[in-house]
Amino acid sequence: MIENSQKNVIPRIKIWIDLDNTPHVPFFTPIVRELEHHGYKVIITARDAFQVFELADAKGLSYVKIGRHYGRHLAFKIFGLVWRSVQLSDFLLHHRPSIALSHGSRSLNIVCNLLGLPTVALSDYEHSRPTPLSSPRWLIAAYPLIAEGLSHKGGRIRYYRGIKEDVYVSEFKPNPSFSERLGLRQEDMIVTVRPPADEAHYHNPESEILLAELMKRIIQIQDIRVILLPRNRRQAHAFRTGHPEWFVNSRTIVPPHALDGLDVLWVSDLVVSGGGTMNREAAAIGVPVYTIFRGKIGAVDRMLEREGRLTMIRSAEEVWNKIRLVRREKNKSLDNQPRPALQDIINHIEDIIRIELRRLHKSR
Question: What is the share, in percent, of the chain residues with pLDDT greater than 70?
Answer without folding.
Answer: 91
